[in-house]
Design a protein that fits this description.
Layout (H helix, E strand, L loop, with lengths): L1 H17 L3 E6 L3 E3 L3 E9 L21 E4 L5 E3 L5 E2 L9 E6 L4 E12 L5 E14 L20 E5 L13 E7 L2 E2 L4 E6 L13 E3 L5 E4 L5 E11 L8 E12 L9
Length: 264
């Protein structure tokens, strides 16, 4: 009897925690010089649950979908074959790689995964994005770096409305638009999670906003840190092996203490 209860509890725990897992992409810096390297990490956390934070919770499967860098000229670079496993066990650590760009401008890192999860009859569709800028000089970083507001066509996608890299710093609003299958999604919760903070249960007015009629939401950071923007939507879409579809979208933004353009 005790064994049955423990087994049932383990199944419930695995299902509740697993269904809340979100992937995100993170870079070690938001601006580098031409020819320098940017470190890109692919991580998995529990941002879909009631204690959303930056804590790792397992390790995502890199084969579940494309992982690429989109250069300023639109050229795409596949990163999956460059990934290094940082963990000792299959569920420990995260994936990491380095990217060197030779063209100045804004680079968009993107990952889209689509799979039926093993712990429940659900389809999980995850969008993860982040940005960085390559500049010819770190002393004079140009503020105009276009390309950040171009949707990639992910089913659920967070698209920056304002440049998330230049200019960026404390007091500079993070503004995004939430799209579902290409259309603005209104009255949905968007979380702006600072690294080191733990959001309260239900709606946390400190770090969460509701999208307006155009799918827009904004948050103004008071200090430099990593901020994970996250949104979720579940739909009664069924298919072979699943009876519902859970969508998630993340956008990780590095907010420096000093703006790279103006130094303020």
């Amino acid at each position: 009897m005790l064994r049955c209860l423990l087994t049932a509890a383990a199944v419930i725990l695995a299902t509740s925690s697993g269904s809340a897992h979100d992937a995100w992409l993170q870079v070690n810096t938001n601006v580098v010089r031409v020819g320098d390297a940017v470190t890109i990490d692919l991580m998995l956390g529990n941002h879909g649950n009631n204690h959303r934070d930056f804590k790792l919770a397992g390790k995502t499967n890199p084969a579940a979908g494309p992982l690429e860098v989109v250069a300023p000229d639109g050229k795409r670079y596949d990163l999956k074959d460059r990934l290094t496993d940082t963990g000792y066990t299959p569920k420990e650590g995260f994936w990491s790689t380095r990217f060197v760009g030779e063209q100045a401008g804004l680079y968009l890192v993107s990952r889209l995964s689509d799979q039926v999860v093993s712990y429940a009859p659900k389809r999980s569709v995850q969008s993860a994005k982040t940005c960085f800028v390559i500049s010819r000089s770190l002393d004079q970083v140009p503020p105009d770096n276009p390309g950040f507001d171009k949707p990639l066509g992910h089913p659920l996608e967070l698209v920056p409305v304002a440049n998330p890299v230049t200019p960026m710093g404390p007091g500079q609003a993070i503004r995004v638009r939430l799209l579902f299958k290409g259309q603005p999604l209104s009255a949905e919760t968007v979380s702006f999670i600072p690294r080191g903070e733990e959001l309260t249960e239900e709606f946390d007015p400190r770090y969460e906003r509701q999208t307006d009629a155009e799918g827009r939401a904004s948050f103004t950071p008071k200090e430099g840190d990593y901020y994970l923007v996250a949104a979720h939507r579940e739909a009664p879409e069924s298919g072979q092996g699943y009876d519902a579809t859970k969508y998630s979208a993340t956008l990780c933004i590095y907010v420096p203490h000093l703006c790279p353009c103006c130094g303020e």
